[in-house]
Amino acid sequence: MEREAFRMNGFVILVALLVVAAALVLFGMTQDEAFFIVCVVVAAVIVFLPASGFAVVNPNEAKVVQFFGRYIGTIKTAGFTWTVPFTDKNRVSLRVRNFETAKLKVNDADGNPVEIAAVVVYRVVDTAKASFSVDDYENFVAIQSEAAVRHLATSHPYDSHIEDRTSLRDGATVAEELTNELRERTDLAGIELLEARITHLAYAPEIAQAMLVRQQAAQVVAARRQIVEGAVGMVQLALDRLSAEHVVELDEERRAAMVSNLLVVLCGDRATQPVVNAGSLYA
Q1: Which of 95, 137, 217, 250 has the most CB within a 10 Å radius?
Q2: How many Å apart are CA 39 and CA 29, to the nearest integer?
Q3: How far apart are alpha carbons 40 and 22 in whole angstroms?
Q4: Which of 28-37, 169-178, 229-238 has the highest mean pLDDT?
């Protein structure tokens, strides 16, 4: 787990080292030549050995500090800092990143080949896990993202005609499911998954034309169903009004004829030609 590394203000340590070194050199100048040389060597050691502990940390960046292979902590405070000398200080970015998967060709839940891609937004929150739990956390996120997108595509159909069945075209639901799955996959690497959304979704080229015809037919059927439902309601309303206001009394046969005529007029996809009956209603 991540922990804070020992650190001090780098400018304070630098000034202190320079003051001590200058004092030694000045003191050596008051002595003989051999002692002066010793003072210069000691001053150089005092300055250059601790200098390996200096580090510059940029905003939204961290330094993972290792002392001969042992993790001793992480520095997240931006600025010029000083820590334990002779340590390796590896940079880890804490900025928000985004990654877009390639267009993957997979079979959906119905076995239809589809092309799908997604964009993933994430950031590092645990530098220790990101550095030591996986070899390369960026590559780890990329591979896990593609695996999650493939799993999502095979779990749902491209388009669903069943009311309670989730399809890949249900953007909000699918995005939430993808985000939750990726959070579980990337938590091991100290990654916070902020968002994952589908950016490309289409049938594979070899079946795209056939599926387009199928979608058009489904839309035509749905439109006709809505037209018929509306027409039946209008016919019912007309018959009820005629009967309630005693405009005309119709027997069952004439009611059936009127229903048939009204449905033809309301449901037809072409303009109808009116026919005026100048004779008896029963002629």
Answers
A1: 137
A2: 9
A3: 9
A4: 169-178
Q: How far apart are CA 149 and CA 179, in angstroms?
A: 10
Task: Compute the distance between CA of residue 54 and CA of residue 62 in angstroms, rounded to an integer.
Answer: 14
Radius of gyration of the chain measured on its C-alpha atoms: 39
How many C-alpha atoms does 83 have within 13 Å on its Cβ side? 24
How would DSSP label each residue in 71-112? EEEEE-S-EEEE--SS-EEEEEE-S-EEEE---EEEE-TTS-
pTM: 0.68
Inter-residue contact 3 to 77 (CB < 8 Å): no
- What does DSSP assign to residue 53? G
Rounded to whole angstroms, how far apart are CA atoms 206 and 38?
Answer: 82
Which residue pairs from 168-175 have beta carbons closer than 8 angstroms and sit at least 24 positions apart in sequence? 168/108, 168/114, 168/116, 168/198, 168/201, 169/201, 171/197, 171/198, 174/198
Q: List pLDDT tens digits, range 63-72.
A: 999 998 899 9
Cβ neighbours of residue 266 under 8 Å, at least 6 residues apart? 227, 230, 231, 234, 235
